Amino acid sequence: MSLIDMVRTEARLAPVSGIEAVANYGRDRAGLIPLWSGEGDMPTPDFISSAAARGLANGETFYTWQAGIPELRQAISRYHKRHFGMDFSEDEFLVTIGGMQAITMALEATAGAGDEALYLAPAWPNFAGAAGVAGVKPVPVLLDMTDNGWSCDVEKIAAAITPRTRVIFVNSPSNPTGWTADRETLQAILDLARKHDLWIVADEIYALFYYGGGRAASFMDIMDPEDKILFVNTFSKNWAMTGWRVGWLKTHPSLSRMFENLIQYSSSGVAQFLQRGAIAALDEGDSFIASQVERAQKARDIVCKVLGDTGKVRFSVPPGAFYLFFSVDGMKDAERAAFDIVDKAAVGVAPGTAFCAGGEGFLRLCFHRRLDQVEEAAHRLAKWINAQ
Asked: From which residue to which does any coiled coil extend (predicted)?
């Protein structure tokens, strides 16, 4: 028996990222345009980096508040007041190592071995992966793709609930489909959670990357203070900070001490100088976000026009996030197609099989890049598609 056979089954069976496999294959190709990862191409703006550098220069390199420095939690509260119209206390927020730690802690608090967690699929795979590692069974509920776009049939969620169900994970706007729940759908999901006494973990990190004007609908618009909802968020997307690994969790203030304990026994907190940059992002970054959303919408329209003109691509124009999830006529193996696109089109895309159930037969590209690169990538893809 080898060492790998002696570790926990859940750890041994943690899935390999299907995105990583294609990225590792093509990342060193000269001239390749990488659209496989969920990030933009802009480095973190200077007003954010400079604030972090000042904190570092000022010696902010010691242990700090486990929940996050008060100044950052106050800034997060101000952010929600501006964009969501909500008056939340700083005590309702905890600073985390990216959104992923927030998700992991939300799972730790709401479900355990033998329990089930529902999630809407196709989906960003990390929630299902984290659930599996924790011994929680991730149960996909498939979104529907129609001529009018992706939609959520709440009756499917209801049908998937069992006595073991503890939590529903809702990512809206969605990675990879761009599906964005309207207020009525969120209300129906919340009503279902209340009826069955379930937790909701709300991943609304793309709420401002919404192309319908303003922001996307949020559970914050309809919830009562005592509802069992945990909100996970990250600085990664809005402020071009993917490599910083800073995020936050929004919870009921009565749960803050418990989540601080979970932080203590996992990371012991986020570096204080990084939190200085996060404060600058929140307080000074609204115009930067607006410019990024405007650029992403133009990029979306370019790639949809070019691929749509082939007559061989099926997709729904995404109302939110910054991904196009599309299928190609005659494409039988999305994973093989992704590698072939690297070789023949010099474009990096992710296979739909990397996004859990329902992703078979699709490819995902991230269009959050310079418009000239997006247009060039779209034409390369169109050429590859037309040659099939």
From this structure: none
